[in-house]
Amino acid sequence: MSLNADRSYKMKLRDVENAFKYRRIPYPKRSVELIALLAISCTFFLFMHTNKLNSRLKEMEVKLQPSEFSALGLTGNHISGHDAGKHDDINTLHGTYQYLKSTGQLDTLTAAQLNNTPKAEREFVLFNRLEKVGSQSMTKLLGHLGALHGFATYRNEIPPTKKIVYNFKEELAFAEELLELEEPSAYVEHTNWINFTAHDMPRPIYINLVRHPIQKVISAYYYHRHPMIYANSLLRNPNKPTERKEFFERSFNDCVRQRIAPECVFDSHLPYNQDWRRFTLHLCGNQNVCTHFNSEMATQIAKLHVEKEYAVVGSWEDTNITLAVLEAYIPRFFTDATNQYYSHQEKFMINATPHDSHLDEDVEAYLKQQFAYEIELYHFCKQRLYKQYIAIRKQVQVQDSSSTENRSV
Ligand SMILES: *[C@@H]1O[C@H](CO)[C@@H](O)[C@H](O)[C@H]1NC(C)=O
Ligand SMILES: *[C@@H]1O[C@H](CO)[C@@H](O)[C@H](O)[C@H]1NC(C)=O
């Protein structure tokens, strides 16, 4: 494809897609005919209203004891009912708070310390979404907020196949495409972190979402087996071999226990085989080391990027905290996000395929071991999110009390 042909093709596509709310960066031509078909089928068939998810989140809520903690106005939902009564667990909001307090960090904590948004060199949000974390809901929310706050929203068209990592030239070509997008805007794709500075390009505002890595993998397992998703994947990739009955009928627990199907073997020595095990990959980047599953090195690189590069890495496991942190740290794009989310909630609860998330004890024990680093990174992201939240709540409280003082003076 020559560059000029590519450009004019792109412009044509954009004209066509002006009719859609979402404009897309084009991918190879053969996928274009499927755009409308896929878009329609996805919208209709994946539109499973997830009361189930809702009630699961409710179940997982842990009511916090009134304490100095709630005096700070900190509230939120927690990932696991197991945390009830274990409020010193650092992987909860309360535990993170207690940790900051007991180590003396709370006194000096400010929102500015944890704010990477000012490092961005253009008004451009890059949501390089992880798989099966509820990223479609965030994509919808971005679209909604874009219409409200006047920023454009783009997403890629899904290619039939995609490389796991880009080489330097491919990464450069992709980064150039992103640079062409107008500002302010937001772009969404399952893709790896890119060092734009290394390409002499301005840095975006990076965001992402996480979910417990084991839950994420179970979700991916059943998602691939959902009849509509499976049909769509055949449509996208007609050369894909069709699966047998066992593929659809085997439970996740059995699959892991049997260790026959490649997507159920979680061994760090196996090369990447197109499943969705790798929590770290999109946060780590396009280096080869990032493709290693449950790798200490990939985890360390990903942590560095989360801490220094990402404005917010949220989680729908902590919906309210995530929305509050997005509002506070990226106000140009997320002002009023909480209010908008709860006023149009049905619009954002999409693409969930209800499934059995139960884990047998032996399977759980095996997975916890195989996913140790991936889980560590997940907790790292959650702690940082809690810390950002505590920092803004603390700021609000400090502001409130200083304005009270001012009045009384
Ligand atoms: C989250 O916020 C909504 C809207 O403000 C509220 O109704 C809900 O109770 C909150 N959930 C939790 C767990 O705090
Ligand atoms: C990004 O690239 C620049 C220039 O090559 C380098 O100085 C910087 O350390 C890189 N950042 C990260 C997080 O790797």
TrEMBL record:
Compartment(s): Golgi apparatus membrane
Transmembrane segments: 31-48
An example molecular function term from Gene Ontology annotations: sulfotransferase activity
Domain of life from the UniProt record: Eukaryota
Membrane topology of the entry: Single-pass type II membrane protein
Pfam families: Sulfotransfer_2
GO cellular component term, pick one: Golgi membrane
Gene3D superfamilies: P-loop containing nucleotide triphosphate hydrolases
Chief site of localization: Golgi
Family: Belongs to the sulfotransferase 3 family.
Record-given protein name: Heparan sulfate 2-O-sulfotransferase pipe isoform X2
Gene name in the database record: LOC111605109
